[in-house]
User: Fold LRRCT domain-containing protein from Amazona collaria.
Amino acid sequence: MPAPCGLAAKAAISQPAPAAPRGSQPPRRRDGPEELHRMVGKRGTMMPPGRILLLVLVLLPPGPAAPSSSQPNATRFVCTEPTLRTFPAGLPRTTLSISVEFTALASLPPTALVPVPLLQELHLSSNRLATLPEALLRPVPALRVLDLTNNLLLDLPTDIFTGAPHLQHLVLRGNRLRALRPAWFQHLPLLLWLDLGANALAEVPPEAFHPLRSLRSLDLSHNLLAALPPGALAGLGALEQLDLEGNRLLTLPPAAFAPAPALRLLFLQDNELRELPLRIFLPLRHLRVLDLARNRLRALELPPRGPGPALELDISGNPWHCGCALRALLRSAAPLLSAAADTRCASPAHRRGQEVAALSGAGDTGCEHRGDGQHPPDP
Assistant:
């Protein structure tokens, strides 16, 4: 069996594969249009564009050191040795990518990256890191990808990312972060992908993400958010994907999405939303996927229809009021509507228990349009 640590001499920057064709029914988890789909693999993992993929050409014994003399032109170091407790030393100056994952690594010295000033990618997922030194990234100003998924991080130093102005992909998923520090994002104007999912965040400070003017994907899923401040998305004019799944949201500010008119994918499933403000989706003329499954919604106003593909909408698992307005919504959303078979009407009384998905084919008795274009009161 080959050793789990090694250097590779000849690396190639991979080109991402094209996105898989989209079906007529949206899956539970959508990865987005091609330009976003190519950046994400399975849920909880990330495969950003430009990740270095290659075979390990030189296998080294597992341990803390990787002698540079054996491969003076090496560009990637990979180690998944479960017993590794110290960050590898002696890496070649030419190293562009380091992957130390699924090990027992619990700490990093401030000078860990000094020997590799050309580093572009650092993958440290599934270790035991509880803290990071503030100066860790200063020796690697060209860093583009930092993956810290599934560690034990409770907090990060205020200036941890100051020395990495070219960072494009930052993954902090699956840690124990309880608070967001706006200072983290002050010097990341090129960041495209930010994953803060599966932490313990209870709030988003207003305008915390304001400096991230290039950000295209923001994942805040599976945290403890009960509300969003009105300025939570301020500055995110380029944002295309927003994931708020699995929080505790009761409602949203009326202008919550106004700062992010480029949104294409919006995930709000598995919250506690009881109602949404009128016209909340009005700014989202490019929206293509909206997931509202398993909330407590009784009514819904659709986003405006624009040119291009129809909206993919999931309304499963809500206690809908199955009146005229909902029937009109269902007809306009079909055929890309997803409503699980167990999604049933909660009201009015004569429709209680009926499947919501069947309403789009129901007759219009009592729901004829008035001359002013409005529906009569729901029967």
